Amino acid sequence: MAKPRLMFYNDGRHPLIYQYEPPIAREEYESAVDELVGTPVEALMFCLGDGRTQLYNTQIGELWGHNRDVWTHPVFHRAHRNAASLIDRGADPLKIILNRAHEKGLLLYPTLLVQVPSGDPEVDVRGSDFRFNNKQFDIGAKGGIDPSLRTNQLADFMHEEVRDERFAIIKEVVEGYDIDGFELQLNYGRAYFHPTEMDIGRAVMTEWIQKVHDVVKSSNSNRELVVRVPASMEGAHAIGLDVRRWISLGIVDVVVGNTFESAETIDQMTDFTPLVEAAKGTEVRVHAGLHSLVRSDRMAHGTIEVLRAAASNYWAQGIDGIYIAYWHGMWPYGDDYFAKLRELPHPDIMAPKTKFYFVPTAAERIEPETLEPGVVMQLPSSMEVNEPTSVQLRISDDIEKWSAASRIDEIILRVRVTNSTERDIYSVKLNGIPLPDSLRRTINTHYGKTSQYGKLRGYFFVYHLNQQTWPVQGINEVEVTLEECDPQTDPERYVYDVELEVRYLMGKRFYRSIQDSDLGPFT
After folding, report:
1. What is the pLDDT of residue 442?
2. Which of 9, 394, 421, 520 could be cross-linked to 45 through a Cys-Cys bond (beta carbons 3.0 to 4.6 Å apart)?
3. How many CA atoms lie within 13 A of 202 on its CB side?
4. How far apart are CA 153 and CA 210, in angstroms?
5. Integer Cα distance of 484 and 423 in angstroms
6. CA distance 150 to 261
7. Phi-psi domain of 144 (left: phi exceeds 0; alpha: psi -120 through 50; beta: other)
8. How far is Cα 282 from Cα 262, in angstroms, rounded to an integer?
9. Whether the Cβ atoms of residue 347 and residue 314 lie closer than 8 Å to each other
10. Which fold has domain 6-358?
């Protein structure tokens, strides 16, 4: 079996069973496959359901909504009706997807959300009776955890009953369907054991992963076990997942490193090198999780330039593939979606093309409490007078190479400072080189419009860099200093955004594009 380099996650819900009016038609359900035909995607990672309850014809687990008579959520009710209607017509939803994928030349890897809170049976219409009726298996049952934390309702994998219930669903799918692999989505929860039992818990989880690996391989050694985990191995270790050990034992085939899972937001700055180094010399492949959202006040989903920059940064670190996660926010997919997919597996094609890099910002955009352990947010960064604030920005472009080929059009650095006034004085350095005011355009956003991410008052400093101040391939340091502060304003200043655009020409001394040319519009 070919080893896929480009995997695409469909959660089976948001762009599919939530969308179509019951009873869903087979052709509508097959759209989860059809929308990938003709793209470079090689493997469809298809979610089985909520994790606790499933959306296929399970005989071992529990069907989504089987325990509900009255629904508090019409869309979740629609999902139940659609799945049940297919099953009642003798059409197993998972078999529909599997058969269609193979018919169209795609590999199919079912995905199980391994860790989901047990929920409240009065309001949670997606929960399972197993979890509702066995609260003693929740991590919080052992006490000693802040009752407000989500961790309390997560399953404690120290209990054999919890591990067995999860394993039974995996075994049913592996043995009952002609799948090409199986994915464990392990980055959906933030703990697998009580904090006092993490050390022994990691060994328990490793033994369970070995058991899953063995059953995935039992009838077909070419089948692959994929695990989606926090990109930081230390972070994964902290929640009970000994990823380094799994790699060394060879009990996983693909490790997908992911950050900002809950926010579903792009992190171009993710460091995958520890995972890549751990897998070096083994048969284990490392894939980088790529989301689509930016969540800024100027951009919701990433443009092709943003996604190109992220993918290029990932490939430059020696990864084996890209895992496209949570692109369903762009559904229904149009031409721009297919354009974004086309280049992703080809770092050489993306190399001389325009890229938009940015350092992710927490606060309104990404709630810090939802972050994976091991993730450190650089922004927003508080400022004090005459105390430089440094931000690291990773880029993959070989500026010198493409400059020598006369392909660089311009390079633009943007820095936003919030709560500043026109009487503040700032200086900016890039890799220790002061950026002169002659390169800077200051843009007033002091009273910006409210977006879904709040009001961001302040200024953008936009630098059109010259060759003496160009960035370097790899890590760049942007240093911002508040030299003088308006004495009549009190709010704390922040460096809120750091962005870099590398704009390329289509060819030597050519224009950027037909739509963006110094020659004016082409008609």
Report:
1. 96
2. 9
3. 18
4. 26
5. 8
6. 15
7. left
8. 30
9. no
10. TIM Barrel (3.20.20)
Q: How far is residue 183's CA from residue 185's CA, in Å, rounded to a whole number?
A: 6
pLDDT for position 362: 86
- Could you tell me if 375 and 261 are in contact, meaning their C-beta atoms sit under 8 angstroms apart? no
State both tokens at 468: 């003496």
Amino acid at 74: P
Predicted pLDDT of residue 490: 86
Look-up of token digits 């370097």: 472
Query: Residue 88 phi/psi, 5° resolution?
Result: -65, -30
Q: How far apart are CA 127 and CA 67, in angstroms?
A: 9
484/172 Cα distance (integer angstroms) = 66
Contacts of 372 (CB under 8 A, 6+ apart): 187, 190, 230, 231, 232, 235, 258, 259, 260, 261
- Cβ 319 vs Cβ 396: under 8 Å: no
3-state helix, strand, coil in the chain (%, to 5): 30, 25, 45
Domains of the chain by residue range: 6-358, 378-504
Per the listing, tokens 């869309």 go with: 75
Q: Report the DSSP beta bridge partners of residue 185.
A: 113, 228
Query: Structure tokens of 223?
Result: 């089948």
Tokens of 390: 């440094």
Token pair listed for 403 = 């400059």
CA 361 to CA 295: how far, in whole Å? 9
Q: What is the DSSP letter of 492?
A: P
| Nearby residues of 54 by Cβ (< 8 Å), 6 or more positions away | 48, 61, 62, 63, 64, 169
Straight-line distance from the first to the last Cα atom of the chain, in angstroms, rounded to the nearest whole number? 48
Cβ proximity of 79 and 41 under 8 Å: no
Helix (H) or strand (E) holding 504: strand 494-504
Element counts in the chain: helices (H) and strands (E): 14, 18
Helix, coil or strand: residue 198: helix
Rounded (10°) CA dihedral 132, 133, 136, 141: 30
pTM of the model: 0.96
What CATH number belongs to 378-504? Answer: 2.60.120.1200
- CA of residue 334 relative to chain centroid, distance: 21
Q: State the 10-residue block means of pLDDT for the chain, 523 residues long.
A: 93 97 98 98 98 98 96 96 98 98 98 96 95 98 92 97 98 98 94 97 98 96 97 96 98 96 93 98 98 89 97 98 95 94 97 97 74 91 96 98 96 95 96 97 80 72 97 98 94 95 93 68 55
